[in-house]
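Quick one:
INPUT:
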């Protein structure tokens, strides 16, 4: 069969090493105009601009001029079922869940409704340059099928799982320890590594799972250790107090997971704001992933993630919108919020660090960096093309820039979907 080939040209932004490394040299970092040669959706090579490869001589070049081509954004923690309740006013976490989230999630037993929202969610994300996401679904297996099907039609690399809850939630949103195990196992066997799909075992958070359910899901993870496990950790002070009452014997919030086999290197913990020293040490010891959700943490009033401190530890750090607790589908807006939150803690995140968090950082946090999150041979051609002059305000600022970082930063701070000139999934323009 003949191979599908394409060439994309523009200024390429990719990283050989993390800009959080102490010796990362921001000033000598090069963003040159280059060509990306793609075969069957995978990056085959990267070469100088205007020079063609012999075996690509009949292939048309998509030349994006001075636009910046980045790896597609990776949104490492979202709830696609909350798409329609984004920007719901006036509540903090527990009330926000009860008043807005749970009633909406009840609707996802209807496969048609789940499919409609999954398509909306994915289209909003793609138009913002996000090509991979790790999503919570609802307790309904239909919601998981709907999401993976919507992603498969578009050939997207995604992570998702059935959200498990067996108490402290409305009856219609509760499964049991046994059905959580059985449903999750069946869905995992149906979807994990089918095409570009990856299953994540997904207890919502320890307040809505009994010890029996946590332990059933811990058992499932031990049976499928290659899967990710995603959950929430230490998001809001009231939530942590509640966890303390529900699990009086636990040393801390993290311990409520560890006790039941839900702490590990492939564990992905959302929010992780109010961590105790023991928790940080333990997360670092196992090399777990922590996902920063800045627009959500400010919108729901949760707190300020300790980026500077945590970046020095051997945890994996990712960035996420946390739709619908988060207030934007845009990873540009999410980076801006991460910048603002870090500033409130006295740390200025560099644009290189922000872009890295939204691409490679999140890909590493999801253990998918061998497939996505970079522009390098062997990685999928999931790409975002950024116009750094997308509005008059941004343009008049970026025109004064002395280097690429200064040119990019106004787009990070003020950009939205207008800055996304194109999104590619597996080499195909969407
Ligand atoms: N903690 C438990 N469930 C949720 C959720 O849906 N959103 C957020 N932001 N936090 C949670
Ligand atoms: Zn969440």
């Amino acid at each position: 069969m003949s191979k599908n080939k394409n060439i994309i040209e523009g200024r390429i932004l990719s990283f050989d090493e993390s800009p959080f490394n102490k010796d990362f040299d921001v000033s000598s970092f090069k963003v040159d105009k280059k060509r990306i040669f793609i075969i069957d959706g995978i990056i085959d090579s990267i070469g100088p601009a205007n020079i063609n490869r012999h075996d690509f001589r009949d292939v048309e070049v998509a030349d994006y001029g001075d636009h910046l081509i980045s790896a597609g954004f990776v949104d490492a923690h979202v709830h696609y079922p909350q798409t329609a309740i984004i920007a719901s006013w006036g509540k903090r976490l527990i009330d926000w869940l009860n008043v807005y989230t749970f009633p909406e999630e009840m609707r996802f037993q209807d496969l048609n409704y789940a499919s409609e929202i999954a398509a909306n969610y994915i289209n909003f994300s793609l138009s913002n340059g996000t090509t991979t996401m790790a999503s919570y679904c609802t307790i309904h297996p239909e919601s998981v099928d709907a999401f993976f099907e919507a992603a498969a039609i578009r050939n997207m690399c995604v992570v998702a799982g059935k959200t498990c809850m067996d108490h402290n939630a409305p009856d219609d949103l509760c499964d049991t320890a046994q059905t959580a195990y059985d449903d999750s196992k069946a869905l995992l066997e149906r979807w994990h590594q089918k095409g570009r799909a990856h299953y994540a075992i997904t207890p919502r958070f320890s307040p809505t799972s009994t010890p029996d359910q946590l332990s059933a899901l811990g058992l499932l993870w031990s049976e499928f250790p290659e899967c990710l496990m995603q959950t929430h950790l230490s998001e809001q002070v009231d939530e942590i107090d509640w966890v303390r009452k529900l699990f009086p014997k636990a040393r801390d919030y993290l311990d409520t997971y560890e006790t039941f086999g839900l702490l590990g290197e492939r564990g992905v913990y959302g929010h992780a704001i109010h961590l105790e020293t023991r928790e940080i040490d333990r997360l670092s010891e196992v090399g777990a992933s922590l996902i920063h959700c800045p627009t959500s943490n400010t919108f729901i009033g949760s707190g300020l993630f300790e980026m500077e401190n945590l970046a020095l530890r051997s945890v994996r750090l990712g960035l996420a919108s946390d739709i619908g607790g988060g207030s934007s589908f845009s990873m540009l807006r999410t980076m801006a919020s991460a910048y603002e939150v870090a500033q409130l803690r006295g740390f200025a995140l560099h644009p290189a660090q922000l872009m890295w968090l939204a691409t490679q950082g999140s890909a590493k946090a999801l253990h998918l960096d061998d497939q996505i999150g970079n522009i390098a041979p062997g990685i999928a051609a999931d790409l975002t093309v950024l116009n750094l002059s997308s509005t008059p305000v941004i343009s008049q600022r970026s025109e004064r820039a002395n280097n690429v970082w200064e040119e990019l930063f106004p787009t990070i701070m003020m950009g939205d979907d207008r800055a996304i000139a194109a999104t590619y999934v597996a080499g195909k323009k969407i």
